[in-house]
Amino acid sequence: MATTMPRLEDFTLTITMEQIVNATIGVTFEALLEQLGPYNERPDGTSLQMKIEPWPGGRWYRDLGDGNGHFWATVQAIKWPTLLEFCGPLFASYPLVSNVQYRLSEEDGGTLIKFRHTALGFIEEEHKKGVVQGWTYMLNRAVERAEKSGRSRVQ
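Now predict its structure.
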């Protein structure tokens, strides 16, 4: 009987995205925190009830009330308004560690967001397929939030 050896690619995930935002870096950073936290939702509009404690060691988690929820990550690094980095299992309820980075810089009269998610561990195929859609949706919503904000908008 032949067996197939797992490959490293079976246990890793890397997603990168870049997006220009027509808003100042401060407004963009605040919009990102709002979108990842209280305004976080699935693409169908269902609230994820997320909370972020925006300081090193702070939690990023789903608060389902009455002490129920799901731990997503720890704030590994935060440098207002240029870096937000998380480390944790995120959406997974299986052996997985992820590092998520949002790096912001002023560019082209606005803000450039560089996003990277790397993960190591068991990653279900369904999650591999859905995670790109989820991150893209969250990033697009944060960009919309920043650009619609009347706060310190780039002219």
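The radius of gyration is 17 Å.
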